[in-house]
Amino acid sequence: MAENDDVIARIVGIEPGSALAEVVAGRADVMALTQQTHDGALMPETPGGLSHAERAALACRIAKINNDSEFEAHFETLLDKADASGDAARFADIWFDGGGDIRLKALMRHVDLVAHAPKDATRHDIELLREAGIAEADIVRLAELIAFVSYQIRVAAGLRLMRGLA
Hints:
Elements: H1 7-12, H2 19-25, H3 28-42, H4 52-65, H5 69-81, H6 87-90, H7 102-116, H8 123-131, H9 136-165
């Protein structure tokens, strides 16, 4: 059965003792690893060049792009806890394109591209991040964040469908 501190279980609304809770219990290892990855992707001990606030705001942006209001609210809570100020908080606004800051513009463009149409991303898109001064390690961190949040949203969508069928 899913634990209360499991973000996906909480967002999906998996009730203890339900048929869906039993299905999830059969994949407890996957759910535990997913939660560990959530914590590591959004709140790592060493965030590198992507602060906790930036990570939460970018995750919120991805949730908005995927039209998932529950994840949006979850990531907004993380953003509040990270005491986001200035541009970091604006990352969550899907209409914010980075303004005149080349780093912010590159981050917003890349997140939007990969969250909307990952198959359209090319080597050139990575080069644009480098040209904006984003370090290799932070490009990897960004890719991990985008991939994980997209995965998390899709797992929850699948569980919601299963819940609806039960």
